[in-house]
Amino acid sequence: MNVHSRKNLSWRRLALVVGLMVFAVSVFWLSSAKTATSTVVLEAPPRGFDEAEWCETHFVLIKSPLIIERALGNLDAKDNPLASVNADPIDWIRSKMKVAMLKSPNARYVRHAVITLASRTVSAENMKQIADAIADEFHREVKYQQTLARK
Fold first, then answer.
1. Residues 32, 36, 107, CA angle at the centre, nearest 5°?
2. I need a surface site. Which of 37, 104, 118, 133 has the fewest CB within 10 A?
3. Which of 32-36, 45-49, 91-95, 120-124 shows the lowest per-residue confidence on average (mean pLDDT)?
């Protein structure tokens, strides 16, 4: 082996070690986030509605600032779960929120929307409190809209 191939080999080894270290740190960092979930049951779409579009519409409503603001308003002010957050609470929650759809194995149309919040700065208990408040507020809004539609 000549001198250039040895240097090239040592740089490759160094790059491999650094890459593995970065990977290990990123896995640890991602796994250390505290998460909380809450489940929302979606009703079957009315006849003639596309099921995927129906669910996507509900997901947009779940993540809407209106629902999140009302949900935060319903939480106990003295035990503010977002006291450690310096950003706008609504934007912060929207950035941490994921909504996924799960089809119930026993039903043809009923789907569950799973709200997941993940953060390193807010406790899992507080994240669960927020996720449940969002789910409750979503149900209130859907019932209200259905009442208006019947009139």
1. 130
2. 104
3. 32-36
Evaluate if residue 77 carries a pLDDT over 90. Answer: no
The model carries a pTM of 0.69
Dihedral angle of Cα 56, 61, 65, 67, to the nearest 10 degrees: -150
Q: Are strands 111-119 and 97-103 parallel, antiparallel or unpaired?
A: antiparallel
* Contact call for residues 81 and 73 (beta carbons, < 8 A): no
**Structure tokens that stand for 53 in this block:** 């579009």
Q: Angle between the 51-62 and 124-150 helix axes, to the nearest 10 degrees?
A: 120
Residue given tokens 């998460």 in the structure block: 35
Residue with tokens 């947009």: 60
Neighbours of 82 (CB within 10 A): 19
Q: Which of 13-22, 57-66, 100-109 has the highest mean pLDDT?
A: 57-66
Length, in residues, of the chain: 151
Residue 15 tokens, joined: 């790059």
